[in-house]
Design brief:
Layout: E1 2-4, H1 11-22, E2 26-28, H2 29-39, H3 42-52, H4 59-70, E3 80-82, H5 88-96, E4 104-108, H6 111-120, E5 121-124, E6 130-132, E7 151-152, H7 159-173, H8 175-182, E8 186-190, H9 195-206
Parallel strand pairs: 1-3, 1-4, 2-3, 4-8
Antiparallel strand pairs: 5-6, 5-7
Helix pairs in contact: 1-9, 2-3, 4-5, 6-7
The protein binds adenosine monophosphate.
Length: about 210
């Protein structure tokens, strides 16, 4: 299945819960790209400048990355795609690969909530655990509850980059909602409320 939604909709959070619940991997292209940047690999060097300015990494790069990931043994019984596809070209590439989707969950969140959520979002620099300064603060400010690492703001979560990412979403990714609606796969999930409430709605939408 696919999780669709604007930046800050809670895709990563819900994908992680759903993956645990369903016993399938969460495949997050954003996480894969950030790991590549951190490792300084050639993929990371290609992706970094796009990510820093809130633009999308070119389709051919990302399609190749996902194609390879889907051949891994843990993806045999299914997976949750988080942050992919993000363009019609990517969606068509997935189809051309013969992937049969069960569902596309669209997390719907008003634009003003998105900005508030992203501004307060923090990630542990060491283990990647997510927190939020207002909605799910760590016990000690700036310190990860899980591993004691430092919690930092993602470079592309800065306000001007967020605005650009929202524009990119509206232009390039929002058309996928119609695309999957026409294919009869779309399930709309209101993405406001607590993490647990949204998770319950997502499960209900999946039947
Ligand atoms: P995310 O963590 O999903 O918000 O992704 C962070 C950044 O990684 C995005 O702003 C893009 O620059 C890049 N990225 C992630 N997934 C994709 C994708 N499917 N297509 C193109 N770029 C992507």
């Amino acid at each position: 299945m696919i999780l669709l939604g604007p930046p800050g909709a809670g895709k990563g959070t819900q994908a992680k819960r759903l993956a645990e619940h369903l016993g399938v991997p969460q495949i997050s292209t954003g996480d894969m790209l950030r790991a590549a940047v951190q490792a300084g690999s050639s993929l990371g060097r290609q992706a970094q400048s796009y990510m820093e300015r809130g633009a999308l990494v070119p389709d051919d790069v990302i399609v190749g990355l996902v194609r390879e990931r889907l051949t891994q043994p843990d993806a045999k019984a299914g997976y949750i795609l988080d942050g992919f596809p993000r363009t019609l070209g990517q969606a068509e590439a997935l189809e051309a690969q013969g992937v049969k989707l069960d569902a596309v969950l669209a997390l719907e969140v008003p634009a003003e909530d998105v900005v508030r959520r992203i501004a307060g979002r923090r990630t542990c620099a060491k283990c990647g655990a997510m927190s939020h300064v207002t909605f799910s603060p760590t016990r000690t400010s700036g310190v990860c509850d899980a591993c004691g690492g430092e919690t930092v703001q993602r470079a592309d979560d800065r306000e001007e980059t967020v605005r650009r990412r929202l524009e990119v979403y509206a232009e390039q990714t929002a058309p996928l909602v119609r695309f999957y609606e026409r294919a009869g796969l779309l399930r709309r999930v209101p993405g406001t409320g607590t993490i647990a409430e949204i998770f319950a709605r997502a499960l209900q939408a999946l039947g």
